[in-house]
Design goal:
The protein has 73 residues and is of the alpha+beta class. 32% of the residues lie in helices and 16% in strands. It has one domain. The protein has two helices and four strands. The strands form two sheets. The protein has a two-stranded antiparallel sheet with strand order 1-2. It binds zinc ion.
Length: 73
């Protein structure tokens, strides 16, 4: 999935894969390690996320290819 992003779990710090577009549509995503942790949007914050995504899309177009290299320090 091209749009997949990662979020750090607030509890264990592991990466939670999520699709920001699905998030905007109201989906929630669970941490692979913590069944009690789920990332979702509170009603009312969707507008903010949509605006953020629009900016993100513009950034992506400008940036073109971005390095996905990640160091685990
Ligand atoms: Zn977790």
């Amino acid at each position: 999935m091209e749009n997949q992003q990662y979020l750090n779990c607030p509890d264990c710090g592991s990466k939670i894969p999520f699709d920001p577009y699905a998030l905007v549509k109201g989906a929630s995503f669970m941490c692979p390690r913590c069944p009690s942790i789920s990332i979702g949007l509170a009603p009312g914050s969707r507008e903010i996320v949509e605006n953020t995504l629009n900016k993100f899309e513009m950034m992506k177009k400008k940036a073109g290819e971005m390095s996905r290299e990640q160091s685990s320090s």
